[in-house]
Description:
5-stranded parallel β-sheet, 51 helices, about 1000 residues, mainly alpha, 3-stranded antiparallel β-sheet
Amino acid sequence: MLWPVETRSVSPVFVGRNDELDTLREALARAETAEPQALLLGGEAGVGKTRLVEEFAALACRRGAVVALGGCVEIGADGLPFAPFSTALRALRTALPDELTAAAAGQDDELARLLPELGEATSSRHDEQGMARLFELTARLLERVAAERTVVVALEDLHWADASTRHLLAYLLRTLRTGRLVVLATYRSDDIHRRHPLRPLLAELDRLRTVRRLELARFNREEVGRQIAGILAAEPDPTQVDEIFERSDGNAFFVEELAVAATEGCCTGLTDSLRDLLLVRVEALPESAQRVVRIVAEGGSTVGYRLLAAVAQLAEDDLIEALRAAVGANILTATPAGDGYRFRHSLVREAVADDLLPGERSRLNRRYAEALESDPTLVPADARVTRLASYWYQAHDPAKALPAVLDASVVARRRHAYSEQLGLLERAMELWDTAPEEIRAALRPVDYTDVYPPCGCDPATTPLRYLDLMAEAAVAGRFCGERERALKITKKALRLVEEEGDLLRAAWFWVQRSRLVQALGRGDGWQELGTAQDLVRGLPPSEVHAEVLATAANWSMLHEPGPEAFAAAERAVEYARMVGAREIELNARLTLGGLMVDAGDVEAGLAEMNRVKEAALKEGVAHVAGRAYVNLPSELEAVGRSRESAELLREGLAFTRRFGQLDQEAWIWGNLADSLYAMGRWDEAAEAAAGALGSTASAKPRGSGALHLAHLALARGDIAEAGRRLSVACAHLGTHDPMPQQSLPVARVAIGVAAGEGRLLDARTELHRALETGFPPGTHRYGWHLLLAAATAEADARDLPAAAEGRAEALDRLTAAVRKLTTGAPVWQAYERWARAELHRARGTDTAAIWSDVVTDFECLDRPYDLARVRRRLAQALLEEAAGDDERDRATELLRLAGAVADHLGARPLAEAVALLAQRARLTLTAATPRRALDPAESLGLTSREQDVLRLVSVGRTNRQIAEELFISPKTASVHVSNILGKLGVSGRGEAAAVAHRLELFPPDRSAAAGR
């Protein structure tokens, strides 16, 4: 039978959307200037999102852009992992083959997880950074492809997106920095209910200033009239426009359907349900066409012709006639590639699918699965396993569904689609008890598991166990951020495994629980690790045993370094070698090398760490190499070898970027900031710290970046900024998992901020808290900075009456701490001498000879800022000891050198202190005739009376006491104090006093101080 009439329901005229199209046009223009653009396009189903995207794509192509379209695929209830990105990248490869090949060079095997045409994906180690690595490489790939040519990536139907696709999109929109790129994503706003998984992503993206969100409204009556005129190719009857507008409520798709229905004369018999309207058009088809439409509805968003033919089981001529009828009625449409069919609009597909009977749906899924098993080439290779798993699951056949779902979970893991892997593993656990025993007995761990050690059995011959699935699911949940689900699975697994008395498996699950507890912020994980160690104690060497020891050693190195950590690392190395666990061995050796350096065996420890780095690079163990690029430079910095550290860190940045190791890269940025600061390259240090803070890594490395910025702000005299950065750092670092390498630098900056704001008692509280915790072995590099900051704060506040109470006790505690803290390297011996000199200054007993020794120590080190600070102190001591011409000449040179460094670094407090000291001693620091330096009080705009008042405020006088001493009223004294606070830009009397003492506005009587 012929189907002579084709229905035209799409208007050839593009109606409305001028504002939205202008916005898209503007985004395209910005992208052409290498400013990446990101837009979200929302609207209810049928409102016209796809038509707008098509119009924009045509516009972009006319302007020379390359457009890559990708749509989220719905198969039953399962979205294909990364489906829209895979489709878009495939389109880019077709349009720009040379450019994409060049952009992917060196990372083909990793990017093949998204685009299999690039080659075979590597079976690299899976970890929490695996997905992040893939995301980083994808972002950089798009930036490189769009470097010279404008590229539009359009992703449709985000409401169907799998979790991995949502995560990748969020990463892209957060991190794209350059390139002529437009990313446009569409979604159904009416589908986004309160618990829809897309809702949190939309909320997150709304907070990004770089993402614009458009909402398509329904058409008004005038636009509906123009749309109908385009469909009918004639001016419609106004009454008909009114009726269609009322029934469609301006929804573009329903306008089309109602207009066609009216034209075909079937409008009068319709019910009020628009869903019924859609089904009426299907029911008007011949029976064979209806059958084919129902088959396509259950097959997924797109069904290939060969697959459809295998499932429909019609004669080819009959199938073609049925398809011609469905296409002619504008219900189905051919795919752009011409190899399959899809519904013209998903609303029609959903209506048809919802109308299927339960038994009918199961039967269709079974036929799809059987057809695909008979001929796997019926669908693209990258979608085959996932679709087969979905079909068998929807067919309600546990015997077939369980192995198919497990196969799909392996594919998801290989693609780093851990969210989908977790969902599939949970589905497998759901099917486990209903699947026949003979099916379960035939499954093997070697085929489906990756993270779970053999624990004494042969994974190739031992049957797969339910616990194996739980292990994979727990790790997948941790990798994809679903830590609550992972913890729940882990707890259940521990109950099961402890009933069986399997100590090795129990120990492995306790290690996983430790990691999850840390990640969830519910503890430091040591209790769980302790349980794991107790379980393996006394057992023969095994991979689990080695992993437990290596994990415990690394934990101890970060939290409580010492002999126990050293012993655990040594045993981990020994056990790993015995069982051939090379990666565990390298990790444990790296930990051991760091502990050797911290224990004082510097050269041997550094050599071992370097050997591990070289071995990891040679053997391709990227995660160990990335960790080595973090830890080895950190240990070099710990012994004062900043230049070597910085050079290695630059090398590490290139490595971690290449492999997408975001956390390691962020830690490297933080460590680089530390080394650059020490070498006096502060602008570069600020950039490095900002690199750590602004990364998309986990919280702690970002907190490290914020802490370095706080330290820089403090050294440059911006106390308020230092306080803000410190708060950000503390928020990122948290309180649930304290580590000395973080808590001690936090305390150091907190002491500096408190002292700068005149809150010496708060500074002492910070010191007391740090001293109570103590300085574990290997943390002296942080301890000396903290003790020096505290000693300097006490010395600067020596003559503050408010600081008198408790001063003696604080100085005694500091002196005891300085006496006990180890040095271990020349740089820390210099800091020890400096801290002792500051304590002498705090007591008024420092001398030029004491400071001269400190300067001598720092002249041998590559720390220009620290050298400038101690030179200024030596100059002050020389001038205060009634110096002669020789001493004045030496002081002048010292101040000139210190001032030059301070000016170069932007260290305002040091520069002001140098200038003030030179002015008071009437020293000329430059060859040119200097301008008369303003008195610091005059430079602050203080009147002589306000200077008198500030002098009394700085020694702790109340307003009444000031009034009595200056013979003014208390009210007048209060007005003067308020004016002073405003001019100094401080909020209280304590801060004002601190400023006065820092600038030495009212220098104390040195001899009197010494005689007290």
